[in-house]
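Case study 2.
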Amino acid sequence: MTNPASAIEVVGFMDLAGEFRARGWASPHLVALAVPVGGAELLDLLEVPQAAVESLFVNHKAIGVDDAVIRPGDRVALVPPGVPGPHRFCLGIYQRHRD
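Prediction:
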């Protein structure tokens, strides 16, 4: 069993929620984490391709995968590409991939 003090909670939205269910993961999925990791490292631990994730929410704040630092005890949500326009704005990821 994962120690909650050294774990993070991870949920997936949209297609990623289906992938989590297909893996038999609870929602939230607890992941043991002893030290801080970057967003890409977390996706590697979860075996989720980086192309499948547009943005992360770390403790309710939208952040890019390459900019994220996840620490033990954090709550993380994975947001895939394809979130509809109005929702992107409300979630804070509207400008994430605009030039």
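The domain at 4-91 is CATH 3.10.20.30 (Ubiquitin-like (UB roll)).
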